[in-house]
Amino acid sequence: MNARDRDVEGRARSARPRDGLGRPLEYGASGVERQPEGVVRSPAETVREAQRLLDAGMPFHAHEVFEDAWKSGPEAAAPLWRGLAQLAVGLTHAARGNAVGGARLLRRGAAGIEGLAGAPYGIDVPGLVRWALELAGRVERAGPAVDAAREAPRLGGTS
User: Fold this and answer.
1) What is the pLDDT of residues 27-85, one digit of tens each?
2) What pTM, to 2 d.p., does this model score?
3) Which of 144, 137, 59 is nearest to 98 (CA)?
4) How far apart are alpha carbons 10 and 72 in whole angstroms?
5) In whole angstroms, what separates CA 34 from the centre of its chain?
6) What is the spatial distance between Cα 6 and Cα 124, in angstroms, rounded to a whole number?
7) pLDDT of residue 33
8) What are phi and psi of 124, to 5 degrees?
9) Could you point out which of 76, 135, 140, 151 has its C-alpha 20 to 30 Å from the C-alpha of 105?
10) What angle do CA 31, 143, 124 make, to 5 degrees?
11) 20: which residues sit within 8 A by CB, 6+ positions away?
């Protein structure tokens, strides 16, 4: 049994490797490199990195990129980044086979960004809302896990 993993500040942090959907693997297993936490990026860099991760079928990791933007960016942009993080987590849950949680988070994220005006940072908000609501309905009806890479949205235009 391993002693509880801690980060440099003494907070509990699992050092177990993770798969592409963020699920913990056994110690010593080969996993996907984690996203570094607390990275400050420009909005364009955030969108570019999150899209790369979504396209690679790694929405859990994209959620961490959005979370960094939400926590480090201006307060006025927080609803956008928080909503996008929720969409990415919703896709993560749907890909893991959790239809109820996936649909719930997809709908919550869509509601969080739905009222945002324009196309902040080139993000197709109306298209993402449509994508999230359509996927949430499909996940609820179909039940089994979805392919995260195939279902990944286009942030600057839906897939």
Assistant:
1) 877 777 776 677 889 999 999 999 999 999 999 999 999 999 999 989 999 999 999 99
2) 0.84
3) 144
4) 22
5) 13
6) 39
7) 73
8) -80, 80
9) 76
10) 75
11) 32, 56, 57, 58, 60, 61, 148
